[in-house]
Amino acid sequence: MKLLLIGSGGREHSLAWALAKSPKLTKLFAAPGNAGIADLADIVQLDVTDHKAVVDFCKSHAVDLVVIGPEAPLVAGLVDDLEAAGIKSFGPTKAAAQLEGSKAFTKGVCDEASIPTAAYGRFTNREDALAYLREKGAPIVVKADGLAAGKGVVVAMTPAEAEDAVKACFDGSFGDAGAEVVIEEFLEGEEASFFVLSDGVNALPLATAQDHKRALDGDQGPNTGGMGAYSPAPVMTQDLVDRVMAEIVTPTIGTLAARGTPFKGVLYAGLMITGDGPKLIEYNTRFGDPECQVLVMRLKSDLLDLLLDSVEGRLASARAEWHDDAALCVVMAANGYPAAYKKGTEIRGLEQMGSDSLQVFHAGTKRDNGSLLANGGRVLNVTALGNSVADAKAQAYDAIGNIDWPDGYCRSDIGWRAIAREAKEQA
Ligand code: AMP
Ligand code: GLY
Q1: Confidence label for 362 from pLDDT (cuts 50, 70 and 90)
Q2: Ligand 2 mean position to 227 CA, how many Å?
Q3: Is the pLDDT of residue 25 over 70?
Q4: What is the pLDDT of residue 349?
């Protein structure tokens, strides 16, 4: 099979790595890709916002399946345009991708299917939003409705912070994404991510993970796209997985199917495990980055088979096999990230790395005359498999010790919560 992979992050490099192991794959194209993906795929110069150009490329190169990594092309309806042209693609249609594209849409699904989530109000004008804030007090959470590259959420610990967040939304700080605002109850508990494949009707649970969103050790500092992750998430016992399937995922898939907009692809549930059980914080309609990197390290099954089962409606009889081992990913970012950072700094020491239990997935990298250069904020994803989270962590940081990149940094404590739990269980 010939595949086109869309995206350029560590998530897409890890997808390319897993797809390349499939005996079914005969050719992998990638757009826009990165230096790591270039070792596994032919990089093609395509503007992925130009759907006609993507369709034309697929036709002229006899592409059998398009795998879309990030959310923006999904929300923009790339799957719809490919399907209309008779080209198969992995991921939800524009209508189903509203689960990620609009927080108010997801709240509506939760209401309709009685899915546990934070109580909320939605507002299209500032005065009503401010009145609601005064009624509810703090802590409270203010969210721009649409896609805001992970920056549209403010967890406000004081009424003043909440008011500022509402004003920022209606002042246009998030563009169209802030035209509607969702204000919701602050949930207390431990966060976990849960990944499921759906073919529109059936849902196949994949795995659990936890990520570290803050830039600095101790989960301090500014929010980022994610500085590390591990899988499985120890907080997600089998009992909780069963509850999340029954109370959250299955009703969501059922509601979208009943509305005539079935959800196909990977559903990523961001959960808060509260004293009252699991509650949905948000949905994403794609793999997480860096959660995907740890998932594919643990996956024993053929990823391409699973994606095809989703696209072609065969998940009722599909199974995903996993290593019992834990996987952990440490993100190396350019100094300064998530604020201003330099591009073009050289990275050395990666040549000899890579095995079934250690992979360095590239995010923002490019090759220049044989040298590897940083080309983005998040740059490398050092991902290891071990017999515990602590073991995987030790291996990942060992590898980082051999990477020569003075212009990059990483957190030193990825996995701390899971490792503390492991230590307690052994004591
Ligand atoms: P979201 O983009 O909706 O995932 O929100 C980003 C982050 O904000 C989440 O990962 C949580 O850490 C936090 N968050 C979002 N909603 C809530 C909530 N209702 N209560 C507590 N924390 C929240
Ligand atoms: N790591 C969080 C995300 O992919 O949304």
Answers
A1: very high
A2: 10
A3: yes
A4: 94
| Ligand 1 atom nearest residue 282's Cα | 3
All domains of the chain in start order, with CATH: 2-93 (3.40.50.20), 125-179 (3.30.1490.20), 190-317 (3.30.470.20), 326-426 (3.90.600.10)
**Which position has the higher pLDDT, 177 or 76?**
76
Residue of minimum CA distance from atom 5 in ligand 2:
288
Ligand 2 pocket, CB under 6 A: 211, 226, 284, 288-289, 291
**pTM for this entry:** 0.94
How far away, in angstroms, is 281 Cα from ligand 1 center?
Answer: 6
pLDDT at residue 147 above 80?
no
Give the number of the atom of ligand 1 that is nearest the alpha carbon of residue 103.
3
Q: How far is the CA of 191 from the centre of ligand 2 (A)?
A: 13
Output the average pLDDT for the chain. Answer: 95
The 3-class secondary structure across the chain, one letter per residue, is CEEEEEECCHHHHHHHHHHHCCCCCCEEEEEECCCCHHHCCEECCCCCCCHHHHHHHHHHCCCCEEEECCHHHHHCCHHHHHHHCCCEEECCCCCCCHHHHCHHHHHHHHHHHCCCECCEEEECCHHHHHHHHHHHCCCEEEEECCCCCCCCEEEECCHHHHHHHHHHHHCCCCHHHHCCEEEEECCCCEEEEEEEEEECCCEEEEEEEEEEEEEECCCEEEEEEEEEEEECCCCCCHHHHHHHHHHHHHHHHHHHHHCCCCCEEEEEEEEEEECCEEEEEEEECCCCCCHHHHHHHHECCCHHHHHHHHHCCCHHHCCCCECCCEEEEEEEEECCCCCCCCCCCEEECCCCCCECCEEEEECCEEEECCEEEECCCEEEEEEEEECCHHHHHHHHHHHHHCCECCCEECCCCCCHHHHHHHHHHHC
Number of the ligand 1 atom closest to the C-alpha atom of 187: 20
Pocket of ligand 1 (CB under 6 A): 118, 141, 153, 155, 184-187, 191, 270, 281-282
Read off the pLDDT of residues 206-231 as tens digits, 9 standing for 90 and up: 999 999 999 999 999 988 999 999 99
pLDDT value, residue 151 = 64
